Amino acid sequence: MLDGELFISSVSILWELVHGDEYLRRISALASLGERPLAFDSNVTFFVGENGSGKSTLLEAMAVAYGLNAEGGTSNYTFATRDSHSILHEGIYMERGRLTPRSSFFLRAESFYNVASEADRCSMRPGLSGAMYTNPVTGGKVLLHEMSHGEAFLGFIQDASRDNGLYFLDEPEAALSPSRQLTLLYEMDQLAHHGSQLIVATHSPVLLGLPGARIISFDGGELHEIAYEETESYQVTELFINNRERMLHELLEPRV
């Protein structure tokens, strides 16, 4: 990047270009992007919010509008197993920096099986042996489907990411154990310090603890920045750890 310039400096929605899906307009946080753009001023931005608040929908739309596959992968991935992504990308307007990222990808834990299948299929083509990935446990080069889900997910990120890259991650913690989430946090920090920009939708109190990251909440009907300690992920986790017996009693004891 040039003097810390980001690859994406803001995003807004031109609703007049989004046709036929009234459901999207009823998501308040997304509707607000038609009036005020969301500015990016940190190398790592987290999207947080309750299920259905629009964070993954916006992340997916931004990735697709940037030219990435809706099911995941790098810009070279063009496969489609099911056309299930929203049409929101049609109205996405992103203010971009002057430079093009060295690499980019979109990953979501729920569809990574399809990404791994495509990577393994490509590895069978002549001259494409580079589709082998490093197993983060053994260090050996193997096909993605020869690793566990979490190993393959982390191995893909470690091998496919580069300095000065742009990366979209949708709930990556779903594929990773707590210790592997710490490994991903380290990888994200290294990428951020070497010019990469990451936009991540997550519920993970581990990932959200990354120093210097900006956290955008989709709760309450409009996008707003919050502190780490204000996230529901942190508050609920802290409450449960510190008051486990009381919370379990209140949740599980039968009511008369």
UniProtKB/TrEMBL annotation:
It is found in: Cell membrane. One of its GO terms (biological process) is double-strand break repair. The keyword Membrane applies. Gene3D superfamilies: P-loop containing nucleotide triphosphate hydrolases. It is a peripheral membrane protein. InterPro entries: AAA+_ATPase (IPR003593), ATPase_AAA_core (IPR003959), P-loop_NTPase (IPR027417), Rad50/SbcC_AAA (IPR038729), Siderophore_ABC-ATPase (IPR051535). Keywords: Cell membrane, Ion transport, Iron, Iron transport, Membrane, Transport. GO terms for cellular component: plasma membrane. Residues 41-222 form the AAA+ ATPase domain. It comes from the Bacteria. One of its GO terms (molecular function) is ATP binding. PANTHER family: IRON(3+)-HYDROXAMATE IMPORT ATP-BINDING PROTEIN FHUC. This is DNA replication and repair protein RecF.
